[in-house]
Design a protein that fits this description.
Layout: E1 3-15, H1 16-24, H2 28-36, E2 40-42, E3 45-46, E4 53-63, E5 74-75, E6 79-84, H3 101-109, E7 114-115, E8 124-130, H4 133-144, E9 149-157, E10 164-166, E11 170-175, E12 182-187, E13 196-204, E14 209-216, H5 223-230, H6 245-252, H7 258-265, E15 272-281, E16 284-289, H8 294-306
Parallel strand pairs: 8-15
Antiparallel strand pairs: 1-4, 2-3, 2-4, 5-6, 6-8, 7-8, 9-14, 9-15, 10-13, 11-12, 13-14, 15-16
Length: 307
């Protein structure tokens, strides 16, 4: 479990942020952030203010990364790329999450290393990680300024006839009727501008499915998935877009599992893969491709469905 509780006993009163700086070895800004996130307790009570004086039995919830042996796809002195498997979280959802990609990044490269962008849990493929604070800042800015060219592969339903660009604006619709905040993205004229270019690669006639290249020019949540659904070619294995509302609800309630998931969506996972990243960093051009044979993974997933 990456999050553990460290226990201390403090005889004399200290300001909370000073205690963390001295005992944990963090900076003042990090100490303030830990306290704001509810990671520090004094005598069983949550410490709410960074200048609050604390003493007695102190508990601090800290992150200690673990490894499951995931090896990087590409590495330089400044950054590293991992091929994230489908189903792996980028970051923990809460302190009870047993494992996520950030574990591997910080375990292998130190606590200053960090992930610079996100892909969905069910999406597989390349994730770019910085090894230090300087490269993290530079790479995040490149994503923000759209200086990163991303290419995805998706297996979609139907014959995708020709290249096309989808520019439909997207809006996140949040639903809290079940007591849990859940987001579904929809095409909406009041939404944010979005653009994705699609190019068919191979049509599998016996499956009536097409392998498609996807080039997102913007980075909206679920952009590729919603745009493909909008042009009537939903991604195989997608439990949110292109299935009946009952299936979506079951998935969001974590009740869609096993054979029912495969039968209702076409696969045991979302068949979307972050395949390539192209960018220029410190004057050098990089074009990095995933090591995963995604087409093979797709066909194996379809065979599972038939079995």
């Amino acid at each position: 479990m990456p999050f553990i509780i460290k226990k201390f006993h403090l005889e004399e009163k200290q300001k909370a942020f000073l205690f963390l700086i001295r005992e944990i070895g963090c900076s003042q800004s990090e100490a303030q952030r830990f306290i704001a996130r509810g990671r520090l307790f004094s005598n069983g009570d949550l410490v709410l203010k960074d200048k609050e004086e604390i003493s007695g039995d102190i508990e601090f919830i800290t992150f200690e990364p673990i490894t499951k042996g995931l090896k990087p796809t590409f590495e330089t002195e400044e950054f590293v790329l991992f091929d994230k498997p489908s189903g792996m979280l980028i970051h923990p959802q809460n302190r009870y999450t047993p494992y996520s990609l950030i574990d591997e990044v910080k375990y292998q490269y130190g606590m200053d290393a960090n992930i610079t962008h996100r892909i969905d849990m069910e999406t597989s493929g390349l994730v770019l990680c910085a090894k230090n604070k300087e490269s993290e800042r530079d790479i995040k800015m490149m994503f923000q300024e759209r200086d990163m060219q991303k290419r995805y592969l998706a297996l979609v339903y139907g014959r995708f006839e020709k290249e096309l660009t989808c520019k439909e604006p997207l809006k996140v619709n949040k639903d809290a009727t079940s007591g849990v905040l859940r987001s579904i993205v929809k095409v909406d004229l009041s939404g944010k501008s979005s653009e994705t270019f699609f190019k068919p690669i191979e049509y599998f006639e016996d499956l009536d499915m097409t392998l498609v290249e996807c080039y997102p020019h913007t980075g909206r949540q679920h952009q590729i998935r919603v745009h493909l659904f909008h042009v009537k070619h939903p991604i195989v294995g997608d439990p949110l877009y292109g299935v009946e509302e009952e299936i979506t609800t079951k998935y969001l309630d974590r009740e869609l599992k096993g054979k029912e998931r495969i039968i209702s969506t076409g696969a045991s996972r979302l068949l979307l893969h972050a395949y390539e990243l192209s960018f220029i960093y410190k004057g050098k051009e990089y074009k990095i491709k995933s090591n995963v044979d995604f087409a093979k993974e797709c066909l194996e997933s379809i065979l599972k469905k038939e079995i």
